[in-house]
Design brief:
8-stranded mixed β-sheet; alpha+beta; globular; 11 helices; 4-stranded antiparallel β-sheet
């Protein structure tokens, strides 16, 4: 925090009036099923984006990202989306959201400090957006409720960025708590923090550095007819979290899916399986069963690899080596470690959860990975963190 204060003062000649910290995050599972009103489990991590803000005496907005050594500037009168503004568009979308919802603003200076960059796919852009929304609300004494701030963020995402407003991203940045995962229910837009505290385990985020090359457009399954058909497979029940589950009648599923091409059928089948993985992970965490949780995680990665087809050989190689480090006779039923691709897919990041004493061996495998594939992975030790909060 002291660093960003000094950086802000050096950049603008004044001390910041407010400083907010917002966590990065990764999705544990379920991030590809939001369109079907399903559930997502996420983890906010103790790698924060810090945003310092102060007022100006004019109608200009200045943005400075320390780690990128990048500066952007725009006036209130000339306010518009610019593709070249990249990361700064996240803050601009918030300013747009406030202005569109009837709030008055004047010029401000922003400084961003983060040791994880937006390209990693670990929720940094969302952290910038959420941190800016809360900082502006505080600086301007708007006294907005969380729901009003969420409405500002949604307006900015949809109308300014022309992008999806991912509720699980926003909830994990705002409502997460330490030693917990957060489950977002997309059906009723609710959330729940689930205790996650296994003392002998370490959580590693691995940026595999594999360039993302999409082999299919995920938006092809985000169609209303697909949602209606998936809805027909839902069965209401009071015995599971959320009050419903998908039918497990394979004959019925096969008949319904027979109208789809093979690739769409496979992708929708992954959504069915992912729903069960989320329920299994949730139930296992409630029972404090790491083995049950790990089994659900490993199964979820198999879904992403074999059915949803968004992994790549490099990431699959790393996760296979992870399981080999500490195998057990009944590995399929009682795993001691787990891992999965996370985020948009088609490359980049995975998470791995393993015994503390096995970290050196895993790091050796990552060194082998670099020699074999030519990508030098970055590895971060992380812990579940609290959501957005003021630090000054």
């Amino acid at each position: 925090m002291d660093q960003i204060k000094d950086i802000h003062e050096k950049e603008y000649g004044v001390s910041p009036e407010v400083v907010y910290a917002t966590p990065g995050r990764f999705h544990v599972m379920g991030e590809h099923s939001w369109f079907f009103k399903d559930k997502t489990i996420s983890m906010a991590i103790d790698r924060f984006v810090y945003i310092a803000v102060s007022f100006r005496d004019d109608n200009f907005f200045n943005f400075y990202f320390k780690q990128l050594n990048d500066r952007k500037r725009i006036s209130l009168e000339g306010f518009k989306f610019r593709k070249d503004d990249r990361w700064a568009n996240s803050i601009k979308s918030v300013i747009f959201g406030y202005l569109s919802n009837g709030y008055s603003l004047r010029g401000m200076d922003f400084t961003i400090y983060s040791d994880m960059l937006p390209s990693a796919g670990l929720g940094i852009k969302t952290a910038i957006t959420v941190g800016a929304a809360f900082a502006i609300n505080d600086l301007c004494d708007f006294d907005c409720s969380d729901n009003e701030i969420l409405a500002v963020i949604e307006k900015g995402n949809k109308s300014f960025l022309k992008a999806e407003n991912y509720v699980a991203d926003n909830f994990s940045a705002i409502y997460s708590s330490e030693k917990s995962l957060i489950l977002t229910n997309h059906e009723d837009l609710s959330y729940e923090n689930i205790p996650f505290d296994f003392e002998n385990k370490t959580i590693l985020l691995v940026d595999a550095k594999v360039p993302r090359i999409e082999i299919w457009d995920e938006r092809t399954i985000y169609e209303e007819k697909n949602a209606l058909i998936m809805g027909d497979l839902k069965e209401r029940t009071t015995t599971v979290y959320g009050g419903w589950m998908y039918s497990n009648n394979r004959a019925e599923i096969s008949e319904i899916f027979s109208i789809f091409p093979e690739d769409v059928r496979r992708h929708l089948d992954a959504i069915l399986s992912e729903h069960q993985c989320v329920l299994d992970a949730y139930n296992s965490l409630r029972k404090k069963s790491f083995a049950g949780f790990a089994k659900a995680v490993n199964k979820s990665h198999e879904n992403m690899r074999d059915l949803y087809t968004i992994t790549c050989p490099e990431i699959d190689w790393i996760l296979k080596r992870l399981v080999e480090i500490n195998p057990t006779p009944d590995e399929s039923f009682n795993p001691v470690c787990c891992g999965r691709i996370t985020g948009k897919g088609f490359g980049r990041c995975i998470y791995a959860i393993l015994d503390n004493e096995n970290i050196p061996e895993f790091e050796k495998r990552l060194a082998e990975y670099a020699k074999i594939f030519g990508f030098h992975a970055s590895c971060y030790t992380v812990k579940p963190a609290r959501g957005v909060h003021r630090v000054q």
